[in-house]
Write a structure and sequence with these properties.
- The protein is α/β, with parallel strands linked by helices.
- It contains 31 helices and ten strands.
- A six-stranded mixed beta sheet has the order 1-6-3-4-2-5, with helices on both faces.
- It starts with a strand and ends in a 7-residue tail after the last helix.
């Protein structure tokens, strides 16, 4: 058995042919978990090469370790390729070949012939003897992947359908094109160097600056036993173990009290909870290693890859541990953040922090938001509660709205890091405003925060059930239920029971009892679409769900029906008898039937409710840049607020000034109502302090009925002091959508207050 570090050139140059046995599992690597991280590593190495060349220094090699491959080499045959059977590392080997071929295609098309030829030697055996045969490739994958691999590496005709092999090649080709041509990334950062230098760097990186440990099991009677021994014996060290050894070794050199460190800073990391392995995506890792990765990402404001945690920690910590006192300070901060991380699961679900953790990190399975979440909750940053609430509610809204509209989560890790970077230097009392503003300003499709118009316009046509996990839909429906309950004080304050299930009001199996008169194939397909939209979904208990099943809506249509245990009862009767949810009380208003038109109407109603539960970016005029620096969460005394001078000229400053003026107008409502009408709107003032002027107005407008304050001012004949009248001021109408403005006009008109604005 031989084990050597090898570059791609070492593995593939010459007449080499690696075959993956036909029975091995198919290719399963994905963009988010493997392709994008690998490409980021390649770019990091290549850009290091470019910068070294520009500084007229020699680049260091090798610079990135890819992992290990295990294979058995077969006896050589004259005139044939050297054959190897891949035992382990097939995913890595396949991806590396796709990356090499994608880069070769880009270099060849851009006429960088010398470098293209160098890479071509690593992907193809060009002898005429191998033309049209599998041996023309350096690697031949497992049975399920062969057609897709051959098409990706040597395309002929058009590929139909989806396959990760083809998608991987397309991904690497697109990324190589962007980097080589110097296209800026989403943050506006362009790669360094000229195209010629970038091509040289990429070619050098792919051929010589990536390293694999190649283990050749040739010559052993039981190569599989050796392979299993390599993988299964012993307990591997965690990244945290390596870091602990480094920290304590460094502490001893500083003559620090490392025995005290082991108690105060590190002993907790050695307990069972921290070392327990948990699943994240396709990976299973210990909690402590996951935490350290997130902590470094938060501290460095850059993505930290799983395999790099130890190296990155040492690079980050070394300059911060030049003395025993400095080292102790760093470890104290680490310990504080570790305690915060451990407390996540115990957060009160009634708080914005608890809701975010439960809804976004756990249910939406967006662990990529954890570094930002940790940053906001860290005792080391001391973000005020009102700013913490605004920040988390903004990010949660961004996530929920994008999830419901089925917008891609790709690049989320990088975007969370970008947000953390945007907080650099921002005072703690402005953090929430900054995040709200930053999210509102995004225009790239991968980062866009959908507006109310987007949600209301698009969601009614989106197939949610079947495309969005049921656990995520349950979160949305449960939040709407609580929102509806808060619309009237007559509803009881209750917690929803655990284990509620999603029910289709019109069943997916509608053809059994809901197909009279029988629909044409075209109309049936249309109904199938609307059955799975959010307007046809509700929540019921598990036992009620099994009883409802595919039964008809009315008792009259259910005569003789025995299935489900409720003889002769339709869905309406069962919902009416057993469900107490406001969601279902609204559905029960449809006594005689539940139709596609009812679903469409409820789609819009649910979309508007979602906009109320998760307020979105501030709508601005086309010339203004959205910003919320003057909006929610700032506690004020309205009676002493002074008008701030404007005089600014930029779009962002103009938008900021408009929001300040609106806040001032909303505060004046409270002051004047108290002084001129004798009405002390204490609840309104609490809303202003909690949400800010704009969000307060939007919440009051979203209510199904006028507020208590509105009624009190009507009794005093002072509807001119209402929020509705303030919203209709021509200066502020740009802050609201047409539905909100029309609601304000209608509400005032219903109480005979003249509105011609």
């Amino acid at each position: 058995m031989e084990a050597h570090p090898r570059s791609p050139r070492d593995l593939f140059e010459g007449k080499e042919h690696y075959e993956i046995p036909a029975f091995q599992r198919p290719y399963v690597w994905t963009e988010e978990d493997q392709w994008a991280p690998l490409w980021d590593d390649v770019v990091r190495v290549a850009e290091g090469y470019v910068l070294a060349k520009e500084a007229d220094t020699e680049p260091e090699t090798p610079q990135h370790f890819l992992g290990a491959v295990v294979y058995v080499s077969k006896p050589a045959v004259a005139g044939d390729v050297t054959r190897h059977e891949v035992i382990d590392g097939q995913q890595r080997m396949t991806t590396l070949q796709l990356l090499l071929d994608a880069a070769h295609q880009v270099l060849d098309e851009r006429e960088h012939e010398l470098h293209a030829e160098g890479i071509e030697d690593l992907i193809a055996n060009k002898s005429k003897a191998f033309v049209g045969k599998r041996e023309r490739f350096k690697l031949w994958p497992s049975q399920a992947d062969r057609k897709a691999f051959a098409y990706a590496m040597d395309p002929e005709g058009d590929w139909e359908g989806e396959h990760r092999i083809v998608e991987s090649h397309t991904f690497f080709r697109a990324e190589a094109t962007r980097w080589i041509t110097g296209e800026p990334d989403e943050d506006g950062s362009a790669p360094p160097g000229t195209e010629e230098l970038r091509v040289e760097a990429l070619s050098s990186t792919l051929q010589d600056r990536l390293t694999l440990v190649a283990i050749d099991l040739s010559g052993h009677d039981d190569s599989q036993l050796i392979f299993e021994t390599l993988n299964d014996r012993g307990t591997p060290l965690l990244k945290a173990d390596l870091i602990k050894n480094w920290v304590f070794h460094h502490g001893e050199a500083l003559r620090a009290d490392v025995e005290k460190w082991s108690v105060t800073h590190w002993s907790d990391f050695d307990d069972v909870w921290w070392r327990e392995e948990i699943a994240q995506g396709r990976q299973v890792r210990s909690r402590v290693d996951i935490f350290l990765q997130y902590w470094l990402t938060m501290r460095l404001q850059e993505e930290v890859k799983t395999d790099h945690v130890f190296r990155v920690f040492a690079e980050y910590a070394k300059p911060k541990m030049r003395s025993a006192m400095a080292a102790d300070a760093l470890l104290t901060e680490l310990r504080r953040d570790a305690d915060t991380y451990r407390s996540f699961a115990q957060l009160d679900a009634r708080t914005s922090e608890g809701r975010f953790y439960s809804r976004v990190i756990e249910t939406m399975e967006l662990a990529a938001t954890t570094p930002l979440f940790l940053w906001l909750l860290s005792e080391n940053h001391r973000v005020p509660q009102d700013q913490l609430r605004l920040a988390l509610e903004s990010v949660e809204s961004w996530v929920i709205r994008r999830t419901l509209l089925r917008m891609s989560p790709m690049g989320l890790n990088r975007f969370m890091v970008t947000i953390i970077k945007a907080l650099d230097g921002v005072p703690a009392p402005r953090v929430g405003h900054k995040i709200h503003a930053f999210l509102s300003e995004q225009t790239a499709e991968s980062r866009l925060w959908p507006t109310d118009a987007d949600v209301i316009g698009q969601l009614p046509e989106v197939k949610t059930y079947g495309n969005i996990k049921q656990s995520r839909l349950r979160v949305v429906l449960a939040a709407i239920e609580q929102h509806l309950r808060h619309q009237s004080p007559k509803h009881e304050e209750v917690s929803l029971p655990a284990g509620l299930q999603i029910e289709h009001v019109m069943p997916r199996g509608w053809r059994t009892h809901w197909n009279t008169p029988e629909l044409s194939p075209e109309k049936a397909a249309k109904r199938d679409k609307y059955v799975n939209t959010i307007g046809n979904l509700t929540l019921v208990t598990k036992s009620l769900n099994s009883s409802l099943s595919n039964r008809p809506w009315t008792d009259a249509a259910a005569i003789g029906l025995k299935e489900g245990g409720e003889v002769g009862k339709g869905k309406w009767a069962l919902l009416d008898e057993f469900s107490l949810l406001v969601l279902n009380k609204e559905i029960l208003k449809h006594i005689d039937s539940w139709t596609e038109d009812d679903i469409k109407a409820r789609n819009t109603h649910m979309a508007k409710a979602i906009c109320a539960v998760w307020p979105g970016p501030i709508p601005m005029s086309p010339t203004a840049v959205a910003t919320t620096d003057a909006s929610p969460g700032k506690s004020v005394d309205p009676e002493v607020v002074k008008e701030e001078p404007s005089g600014t000229t930029s779009a962002a400053e103009s938008a900021d000034d408009l929001l300040r003026r609106f806040n001032k107008a909303m505060q004046d409502v409270y002051v004047r109502a108290k002084k001129e009408a004798g009405y002390n709107a204490t609840y309104y003032l609490e809303m202003l302090n909690q949400y800010g002027g704009l969000e307060t107005a939007r919440r009051l407008l979203a209510s199904n009925s006028p507020s208590k304050g509105f009624t009190a001012l009507w009794e005093r004949k002072r509807l001119d002091l209402t929020v509705e009248n303030t919203v209709l001021d021509p200066e502020f109408q740009v802050l609201f959508n047409e539905d909100e403005l029309e609601l304000a006009r209608r509400r005032l008109a219903d109480y005979n207050f003249p509105t011609n604005r």
